[in-house]
Amino acid sequence: PVVRGGTGLINLGNTCFMASALQCLSNTPGLADFFTSDAHVPMINKTNPLGCKGELAKQFGELLKLLWSNKYRAVAPWDFKGAISKFAAQFCGSSQHDAQELLAFVLDGLHEDLNRITDKPPTQTIEGGGRPDLEVAREAWDVYQLRNNSAIVDRFYAQLKSTVRCSHCTRVSITFDPFSFLQLPLPTVGVRLMHVVLHRIGVAPVEYGVRVPKAGTILSLKNELSAICGIEASLLVVADLYQNAAFVLDERKLLDEVRPGDVLRAYETRPDSVNFSVVCREFRPELASYGSHYAHPKRHDRDRDYEIDDHFYSPTQPPPSGPSNSSTSTST
User: 305 pairs with which residues across the strands?
Assistant: First the structure.
């Protein structure tokens, strides 16, 4: 490896979840030095019924020594995985698992293997009772360490203030609870990216990526596409192609109803077009890059048809149709 500690972990089947968690722990400041220097050895608690009889801490220390030896490009953590599987049957085999679940087990197992407390006394929850938060927090931490005192607690644990107010008597209870994992909600994204192939009159079709509101409609899509391409939204007709059938989409259709991955088609129409049809014909390899279909706007008051076939827009007669090679969806 180029740098010390830059040793990889060989995948033992589908154990990339384990490799990612272990590499995070290996690169936690101070933790690698603690284990590679054997500072953990005198602290191993083999009698703790909640631990792994010291085996997890031992194998974790040996693994970190390999990762930080600067001798290998990658190592296979077979011994460490064997220790985990021995005490947590869910991690047996080479199946994929959740990395956070494994990380929680490893930290808890290491904590109990290195717990300095051999005889845990009973304790009670510490409440505020109107006292300053700092005073309550310190007392709660001291009580917690009467049962849990290890190098893992020193490095990975903190306190979370919890306030509960009774809706009947208005009594307020304040406690400080220890935690090693804090789950936070990810912000939701209110927009989605949709791909639309725009067929302009007299111009080769172009695919656009359009950001639209998740709760929007086809009209929202037309407005956003209009802002990009400069064509009035009222002159755009949007269609969805599915299994050789073309479906003109109503402006009121919710975008949530459009399947992810679908590439929609948008067609520029003439201002005097009063009806628009999309005709999907049988597959033509020469049009594979743009799609095997063409659009067919029509002025019914003049009985005149126009054909848009990717590259051109011209007057034409209505194409032959039939169940064997075409299907049509019309929006009026």
Answer: 298, 316
Q: Is 168 left (phi over 0), alpha (psi -120 to 50) or beta?
A: alpha
Residues contacting residue 21 through CB under 8 Å, at least 6 positions apart: 99, 100, 102, 103, 106
φ, ψ of residue 321 in degrees (nearest 5):
-130, 160
Q: What is the mean pLDDT of residues 107-126?
A: 94
Closest alpha carbon to 195 in 209, 205, 214, 211: 209
pLDDT in tens, 264-275: 999 998 876 655
Confirm if 278 and 246 have CB atoms less than 8 A apart.
yes
* pLDDT of res. 147: 96
Q: Measured between alpha carbons, how far apart are the two ends of the chain, in Å?
A: 67
How many Cβ atoms are within 10 Å of 224's Cβ, its own excluded?
20
Contacts of 23 (CB under 8 A, 6+ apart): 9
**Residue 175 near residue 194 (C-beta atoms within 8 A):** no
User: Which pLDDT belongs to residue 274?
Assistant: 55
